[in-house]
């Protein structure tokens, strides 16, 4: 599924597609967002099981074999799993424990779990469609899980690895904060639940600091329930609040980012 790639990039993809008869390339006439591409890809896909893979990411053959084995249970609609983030030569694993039947918003914002699009596979069923939210410019994978569990999808978690997300590019969408998209997500999926909104906001505190974005930090801080914070998030919020009071938020955020990058190496 191509979403308006540069001429040199799409030329290479066309060569790959023409060399493999089992590959179908669809070039969208109008550039949109990733959710539109994913939903269209599912509709056009001819296989019973559909995998998603963002352009920056990759997965292993063993992951595909293992996941297809899981999908032999035809009662399962959706499977997602763990992943590793890659930055240069550094790799960091992220593992979560999702219990089948759990609400997506509980897993994401109370248990502080995560889902990424490139870890998702889905069985196509003619009578049911689980879609990515096309009105969101960000948080689309979270919206997908919350929507799917609200609609009664049978969701399973794959504890194995094999999915790698390249987080080194600063232009990657997940590296950018979008307060308008956060407002839309809260209104659409969290139903004014203060605990869930607080968990959602906590997930953005570090990103606000790393990006030196004081406006975003203040926005997310204002949505947090102080009494519900874990020790980790209390420290993060205290650090950001101190930087704000001292008028050195960009400097403190830059310092924290350098410390993080040092651990990556």
UniProtKB/TrEMBL annotation:
CDD domains: Glyco_tranf_GTA_type
Gene Ontology molecular function: transferase activity
Domain Glycosyltransferase 2-like: 2-127
Keywords: Transferase
Gene3D superfamilies: Spore Coat Polysaccharide Biosynthesis Protein SpsA, Chain A
The keyword Nucleotide-binding belongs to this UniProt entry's keyword annotation: no
Transmembrane residue ranges: none
Alphabetical list of InterPro entries matching this protein: Glyco_trans_2-like, Nucleotide-diphossugar_trans
A Pfam family assignment: Glycos_transf_2
Protein name per its UniProtKB record: Glycosyl transferase family 2
Organism lineage: Bacteria, Pseudomonadati, Pseudomonadota, Gammaproteobacteria, Enterobacterales
């Amino acid at each position: 599924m191509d979403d308006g790639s540069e001429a040199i990039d799409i030329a290479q993809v066309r060569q790959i597609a023409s060399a493999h008869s089992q590959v179908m390339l669809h070039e969208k006439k109008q550039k949109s967002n990733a959710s539109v591409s994913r939903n269209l890809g599912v509709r056009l896909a001819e296989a019973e099981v559909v995998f998603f893979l963002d352009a920056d990411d990759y997965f292993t053959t063993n992951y595909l074999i293992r996941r297809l084995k899981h999908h032999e249970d035809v009662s399962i609609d959706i499977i997602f799993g763990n992943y590793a983030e890659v930055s240069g030569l550094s790799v960091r694993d992220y593992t979560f424990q999702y219990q089948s039947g759990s609400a997506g918003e509980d897993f994401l914002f109370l248990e502080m779990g995560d889902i990424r699009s490139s870890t998702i596979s889905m069985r196509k069923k003619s009578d049911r469609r689980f879609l990515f939210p096309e009105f969101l410019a960000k948080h689309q994978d979270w919206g997908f899980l919350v929507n799917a569990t609200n609609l009664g999808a049978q969701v399973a978690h794959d504890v194995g690895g094999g999915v790698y997300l390249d987080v080194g590019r600063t232009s990657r969408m997940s590296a950018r904060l979008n307060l308008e998209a956060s407002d839309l997500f809260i209104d659409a999926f969290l139903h004014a639940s203060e605990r869930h909104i607080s968990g959602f906001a906590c997930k953005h505190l570090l990103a606000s600091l790393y990006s030196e974005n004081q406006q975003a930090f203040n926005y997310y801080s204002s949505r947090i329930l102080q009494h519900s914070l874990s020790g980790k998030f209390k420290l993060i919020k205290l650090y950001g609040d101190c930087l704000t009071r001292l008028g050195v938020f960009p400097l403190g955020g830059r310092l924290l980012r350098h410390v993080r990058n040092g651990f990556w190496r």
